[in-house]
Amino acid sequence: MASNRGINLKKERLQFQKIQNEDVRPAQQRVVFWMAGLCLGSMCILQATLNIVLRLHSDPQAESNELDCYNQTVKRDELLIRYNNLTLERDELLTRYNNLIVEKGDILTRFNKLRDEQQQAKIELENELDKIKTNSKKIEYLEKERDRLQNMLDAFDTQMHRWMQFGTSVYYISVRGSWTESRQDCTDKGADLVIINSKEEQDFINTQLGISPAWIGLSHNHAWKWVDGTPLSAGYRMNEALRSYGTATKCGITVRQADGKQHWTDKNCNERFVWICEKKR
After folding, report:
1. Are 185 and 230 contacting, i.e. CB atoms less than 8 angstroms apart?
2. Residue 218 phi, psi dihedral angles, 5° rounding
């Protein structure tokens, strides 16, 4: 009996502890949950406060950093644009430099060519100057020789030729020259080129003077006229060779024919023949 009662007491005590434990566990769990909620809420409040504090302290710096970043980006873009522009300018300058190098080469080539031409021209000029000096000496010698021969000719003319008389005129035979030069020489002597007015005068020129061919005072400008302005008389014409030339200028000469007689014909006035001056006494 005693052992049964001890067993029953033990069971009752275990049962009481079990009931007591069952009553205490929910209360402990509620306390734990409450404490966990309290801690979690505190942590949330703390986190929120920390976030607010961090935002209040960090936002101005972030905005400043963003502004600085934007400004740096703008500056970078500006520098990049300037770099690109400078690159273009550099390329243009390089192109111009290369073109100038080419132009310099062309100019240098032209300069060398002109210098060579100048040197060649200088050599040719010096050669020409030497020729001119040589020719000047020759011309000086020839002029002296011409003067000497002219003096001899004048002396011969003075000795061998003199005024010859026929009728009321005197006649003089001079040296070679053009028709204009011949007439000028006659007027310088107070005479003029001979005017043949008769067959007798023509015979005198043929037989006494015996000069052929020789300028006479006959010229053509629109018509044949003598130096005194009188027209050519058909009655004294010795030859049909004196043709009309319109406005052309021709001059007359007297020429000895094969039979010894003289006849008149025309020549270019610039040709050179002796001439006959006539002067009234």
Report:
1. no
2. -130, 130
- State pTM to two decimals: 0.43
Rounded CA gap, 239 and 248, in Å? 20
**Contact in structure between 238 and 202 (CB atoms under 8 Å):** yes
Tens digits of per-residue pLDDT, 69-91? 778 888 888 888 989 999 999 99
Q: Which two tokens stand for residue 274?
A: 């002796």
What amino acid is encoded at 276 in this protein? Answer: I
Q: Which residue has the tokens 């040719």?
A: 124
pLDDT (tens digit per residue) in 148-187: 876 666 555 544 557 888 888 999 888 889 999 999 999 9
Residues 6 or more apart from 189 whose CB is under 8 A from it? 172, 277, 279
Task: Give the position of tokens 């960090």.
Answer: 58
Sequence-separated (6 or more) residues with CB below 8 Å from residue 215: 179, 182, 183, 193, 251, 252, 253, 273, 274, 275, 276
pLDDT of the residue at 159: 47
Distance, CA of 277 to CA of 192 (rounded, Å): 5
Handedness of CA 197, 198, 199, 204 (dihedral sign): negative
Rounded CA separation 215/224 (Å): 14
